[in-house]
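Page 42, continued from yesterday. The earlier attempt failed because a stray header line got pasted into the input along with the sequence. Redoing it now with the clean sequence only.
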Amino acid sequence: MLRSRQALACAAGLLALSACAGPAAFEPPPQQAPAASRQHALLAADPDAEGLLAADIGPLEGGRFRWTGQRPTVRLQLQKTGALRLRARFWVAEDALRQTGPLEITYFVNNELIERARYSAAGEQLFEKPVAAGVLKTGANEVRMEIDKAYERNGAHLGVALVELGFVD
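This time it went through. C-alpha cells are written below.
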C-alpha cells in the first residue's frame, strides 16, 4: 500500500513538472482580433488579415504572429483621419540580434517618414506615435516598416515577428 502511494505521488509530481515548459522567447502571446479593428490595423492572428497584406509579410505562425521580411507593408481603410496614432507591436528574436546586432526600423505612412527607431533588446517591442491628419486620407492608406538588416534562419531572410501594425485612436 505504501509503495503504491509513493508511486502515485511520484507520477503526479512528474506530470506537474512536465506542464511547466513555456513558449520560445520570441513568440508573442495569443491575441484576439476585434472585428471593428480589421480595417484600422493588421492584427496578425485575425483570420481575415490576408486582405490587408500588401508586401513582405508571411503567413500566420502558431496562431500568434507573422514573420516579416525587410519591408513589411499593409493597406488599411480609414473612415476618419484625425487623432490617430501609428502602432507597431512585434517581437525581435534573440537569435536575430546575435546575428545582426541592433535593428533600426523606419516607419512610413503613405510614403511619409514618421520616425526611425533603434531596437537593441530582444523580446516584445511597441512603437506608437501620433500621425498628422494631413498624412492620412479617407479610404486606402499604406503603412510600411523598413528594417535595416535581415536575419537568416533556415535560408529565409527575416525581419521581425509581427503582431500588430496599423492605427489606434
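Notes: The chain has two helices and eleven strands.
Reminder to self: strip header lines before submitting.
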